[in-house]
Amino acid sequence: MAAKTIKNQEEAKPVLIQGNQAIAEGAIAAGCRFFAGYPITPATEIAEAMATELPKIGGTFIQMEDEIASMGAITGASLAGVKSMTATSGPGFSLKQEAIGFACMAEVPTVVVNVMRAGPSTGIATAPSQSDVMQARWGTHGDHPIIVLAVANVEECFRYTITAFNFSEKYRTPVIILSDEIVSHTREVFTIPNKSEYTVFNRVKPKMPPEWYKPYEDNSSGVPPMSPFGEGYRYHVTGLTHDAYGFPTSKPNEVISFNERIFRKINRAKQNIQIVKEYMMDDADISIIVYGSITRSAISAARMAREIGIKVGVLQLVTLFPFPGKEVIEVLRKSKFTFVPEMNFGQIAGEVDRVNKNYTTLKKVNRYDGNVITPTEILNAIRRS
I want to staple 124 with a disulfide (CB 3.0 to 4.6 A). Which of 30, 187, 193, 370 is the partner? Predict the structure, then answer.
C-alpha cells in the first residue's frame, strides 16, 4: 500500500508516494467524493486508497460486482451532483465502454482511469503497455468527442487528475486518464501542493426557475448548466439521442443539433484542453514525440544524444485527444527526423503521421512485449537515422 494521505496540506512535507496513490490524492483534491470500482492489476491501489480515505472526508467508496456496474455507479453519483471516479485496467476498461458511451450521450461528468497493461485479453497483467490509446478515443461506439490525458510521473498523476476533473466538470463529459504499470507503480518523493497552488472547477448550475430549465439547451459555450437530481430540477436522462429537454428524438434537425453541439463544446475549447510540454526543443533539429512513461526514456535519450553532438528535443503529449495537431505540426516542420517511441505498434505515431504533410521523416520505435523502451534503444534509432 502506498503512502497515507496527508491530512494537513498547510504542513505538507515531501513523502515517498506511488503513482496510483498520487492519482487518488489528486482526485480527492479535485473534490471527488465517490468512487466505485473493482480490483484489477495494476490499478487496484487507486481503489484501496479511495476506500481508506473517502469515508474520512464524508465521501463514499463502493466495490461493485464488476466494471460495468462501476461505470454505471459513478454516472449515477455524478447525476446526483457528486464528483465521481473509477479506475481499471485492460479487460475492465473494455467492459466499461458501453457505459462510457452513455455518459458521453447524457453529458455526465465522470473521470475514468485506465492503468494500461500488456494485452490483448488478459495479456501480461503485471507488465506495462500503451496499447489502449485508440480504445480510449474510440472504445465506445458512435461518433463522440472525448478528452484523454496521459500521465508520465507521480507529480503528473496528481496534477493531471485534478485537470481531468476540471475538464469533466467544465465541459460535461467523461475524461479518461491513461497511466500504465510503470507510472502507477513507481514511487517518487513528492510534496502534495497546498490548495492555493491548484484550481478546482465545479460544474455550472442553472440559475433559472426549475420550470424554465432545459437540461440540454444550447448556449454560447455549448455546455448547458447541470442541476443535481434532488434539487428541484426534474429532467429526463437517456442514452437515446434527445432534444433540449432530454426526451428521445429522431427528428433530423434535433439529432444534428445535438451531435454538432457536443463536438463544438470540445472543439471550441481545444486551446485550453490540449496540453503539451517541450524539452530542449529550442535548437533541436531532431525531435521525439512521446507520452506516458516513455517520456522519461525520451528525455534521457535526448540528453545522451546532445552529449555526442546531436541536437534532439522532446515534445511530450499530455493531452492525446483532442489530438494537439497544431503543436505537433510546429515540431514536425523544424525537424529533419521525428521519432515516436511507443509500447504498442504505433497508435499515436499514426496520428502524428496523419498531420505530417511531408514536413519530416517519421520513424517509429516500438516495443510490445511488456518491456519498457529504454533511452539506449531510442538513441540507437536516432544514430541510425
Answer: 370
